[in-house]
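Q: Can someone sanity-check these two? First one:
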Amino acid sequence: MTGASRGIGLGAARALGESGARVILVARGADRLTRAEDELKAAGIDAVSSAFDLMNTAGIAGWFDACVREFGQPEILVNAAGIQRRGLATELPLADWNEVLAVNTTAIFELSRCFARGLIAAGRKGKIVNIASLMTAASRRGVSAYTASKGAVGQLTKALAIEWAEHGILVNAIAPGYIVTELNEALLADAEFDAWVKKRCPLGRWGMPEDVAWPIVFLASAAADFITGQVIYVDGGWLSTF
């Protein structure tokens, strides 16, 4: 579980743990990650952690191999890590663009194929759940890098699902709407934006991490064994109206 120290990642780790999974928590900040691990263990969840900065895409393969040696080959991969860099396209520093694409897209590709290689070599099946976004299907001003990265996640989900279907590795994505997380702190603090979200969303509220966590559990479970290559929008009805 990447991005597991907070927000959607931590919520999904908790839900998977409550459902009986042993979870390997992955995030960049070791201190925050340790706190998340302790929190889950206190709740009776079998959790371990491995700190790693996914922006270091060249180091993912070596780090993943080390995790497998320490914890064993996982059967479920949830790619929940993500970053945001806001700014108009004409003004956004190229370094910001590259960072967003590295974490939100390239890291998912590299980690997913490391995961798949191990399963294929062992002749085992598995599940990958990627975290996409409303921006997989739409956009708004000031988030060109994020929109591009999440659009790529949606298409990558389909591409990997087709490539690995014969090996029994199912690949799907959850595309959340506006969720109460630290990534959205600036938006939550903007009273005008907060009111717009609540008015625009048919369910009249922001989503919570647990609203996303349980659909992730569903896709990771045997109940979803005939579902692959799908992007499921968990957005309170956002994309169904205008």
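And here is the second, same format, sequence then tokens:
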Amino acid sequence: MSLIHAIILALVQAFTEFLPVSSTAHLILFPWLLHWQDPGEAFDVALHAGTLLAVILYFFKDWWTLIVCGLGGKYPASAPPAEVMQHKRLFWYMVVGTIPGGILGKLFDKQIEEHLRTPIIIGVSMILVALLMWWADAKAKLTRKIEESNLRDAIGIGTAQAVALWPGVSRSGITIITGLFRGFTREAATRFSFLLSAPLIAGAVASKLPALIKLHKAGGLDLPLSTLAISILVSGVAGYFVIAFFLRYLQTRTLKVFVVYRLVFGIIVLLLAFLQAGAR
């Protein structure tokens, strides 16, 4: 794979990881549609490392506050006790919310990778989640702030994050949808979703990194380290600005444009898949 291809896919990852359109679907379908070679697991880890970099940088102050308060400290020093307790609760809600995705990812990641990453499954998933997103965006009562979150929110949104292992669902999409059904505002649901993504992405990168380091030492990596490094940088920088844009966007707008995009994209994928199957 050339450096240009790597940069294009890094940009695709940055946009589709945080917008509710499924990064997995786009990273599978772009090479399929353009007849590019499979970049391999090392490149997948590099892109997720870039995504992790983006979410950590953007929410660094939030995570620092949550971790310090969650582990018994106080930040900022002038924070009243009620605010510290609120941060402490939210930290442990994030811990609880990470558990379902961590368990299911460990149990089923390989099976999903081998059997479910097909255009037809992705196309159907894109359409079904689009309809669910439309329902949540139009019908749910969107009044709660992230400060009002509770344990049931963490369990519900965390379980939804585990469902996102299914290709085409979209981690951000399904967690935002669940947040909307829980009554959060669009911005609050998205902020909860992005905060919750950091531990899971970090776990996914950490779980695959030792094997890739071993592979690199054995001379088995298909991609040069410079290409992987540039991919991480591009994905991280672009992802940072996508997060900032999306949070501002949802302060005044709905998710309708993403509903339409998912429907159109899903239908096109299904049509192309059936046409290719018929041509064989």
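A (reply): Looked at the second one. The chain has a mean pLDDT of 89. The CA atoms of residues 41 and 212 lie 8 Å apart.
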